[in-house]
Amino acid sequence: MRVSKITQAPSAALRRARLATSVGFFLQAAILVTILSRLPTFEDERGVTEADVTIMLLLTSVIAGAGSLLAERIAVRHSSALALRLALLIISAMVVVVGLVESLPGMYVAFAVYGIGVGAADAATNMQGVTVQRLYGRSIMTRFHAMWSIGAIVGALYAAGSAELGIGLMPSLVALGLVGIVVTVVVSPSLVGPGVEQEVTHDSEGSAASLHVPWRPLLALGLVVIVFYLADTSVMSWSSLYLHKALDSSETVAPLGYAAYQLGAVISRLAGDRFVIRHGAVPVVRAGTVVGLVALFLVVAAPVPWMAIAAFGLMGLGLPIVIPLAFAAAGSIPGTDADVAIARLNLFNYVGNIVGAALIGALATGGQLRWIYVVPLVLVPLILLVARTFAPEREIEAVARARP
Length: 404
Hints:
Layout: H1 12-37, H2 39-46, H3 50-77, H4 80-100, H5 104-136, H6 141-164, H7 169-187, H8 194-201, H9 215-246, H10 256-279, H11 281-301, H12 305-318, H13 322-330, H14 338-365, H15 371-379, H16 382-385, H17 393-402
Helix pairs in contact: 1-4, 1-5, 1-6, 1-7, 3-4, 3-5, 3-14, 4-5, 4-7, 5-14, 6-10, 6-13, 9-10, 9-13, 9-14, 9-15, 10-11, 10-12, 11-12, 11-15, 14-15
């Protein structure tokens, strides 16, 4: 997708909407990564087992799909602003509940409701992101996702700092949730409202046909989402174990693989919009995929920890750029409602997470740690086969009309 530069400066209201959407991406990631980073504390303070933690995480991923569809319903009937506001309030409230509830059944319920919020937030942040991007008239989606990566880093640092200072699970999560509620209440009025959103994201035909999403381009983009999140899961969940057990790094060095990956993701996503504006989405997706492939090969071949850490950083510079562009492309599929297409594409997110957790987890428990990264190394080239899907017909026609 090539997007022309905006012809006039964005209004103050539009700048506030961009900031509010960025905060949504940041808050969602900070809460998620804080919870994930403090999972060992659940075992120490609550007495839950690794099996209990696995079930809670699986429950969250499965139910998140329902949350994505719920966001679709709310966005179509009301607005994605309302869907995002409710989603952020749910995940903020549930992190408070997770911090307070100590019984295992209570934690299962809390994680299930949290999963609904996660799915709704995943979908609604991207809905608002596409809306704001259209109003700007140029690519800004990769920077929204950069805020997600920054939020993930902040969440990891917050969790690590809480553990280092001896702050228990309950006060650290309750404090985070209360901050999330306050921030959501403050920024949500600045999100793009239903009147403006209706004009820029909903199909002009205004008929029930606009709720129909063409499956061919959506499945192609869905394949990209599945492959990316499978690769992303391999780094987030298993890079520390790979560095420690396969490459004999210390426990202090082992977390640096994921840190390098997220740092690379922040850099690529902050810079990505400039390349999209200059070259178009398709070349950027292809370049990011090739960089990711080279990085995965280096991860698999790495004989020492520092080489693998550098390769994880290189992987972050490549693959994470494809996801914001996938959602932007889904929002530009001709003849459909952008919010509906984005919500349904988001479902593939959880397929990738679940398949990745099952497939890669089986390899890890079998002691085949290098094979963890052979799986995405084999699958990532599929992105190159469907790269043209990142230039929907509407955008291709707009570029053609703009050329002399």
